[in-house]
Design goal:
Elements: H1 13-18, E1 26-29, E2 32-35, H2 41-58, E3 64-68, E4 72-74, E5 77-79, E6 83-87, E7 109-110
Antiparallel strand pairs: 1-2, 3-6, 4-5, 6-7
Amino acid sequence: MLTTVNSPQQVTLEEFLQLPETKPASEYFKNKIYQKPMPQGEHSAIQAYLSSTINQVARAKQLVMAFPELRCTFNGRSLVPDISVFAWQRIPRKANGRIENRFEIAPDWVI
């Protein structure tokens, strides 16, 4: 069952992370689950444009990388910003250099 802003039910971060993903995404902070509103056309267009522009300018120079709708779990919360931007050297990577699936650090910049 999805807990909403008005529900008094509380869950732990570990319990939240075991739940299946929702559409639109759900976020967790202060022991509660909040479902994001469904994005619409103009919002999606702006999100795509900003992500693309940030990556065109900064990714080739290995400065930063923008990730749309990326779950970031840190400091007892799990959020899905519209765009998460990470400094290149802070992007979580596997031993083989590929990008990790789980980001357990705060983004440097969120949009």
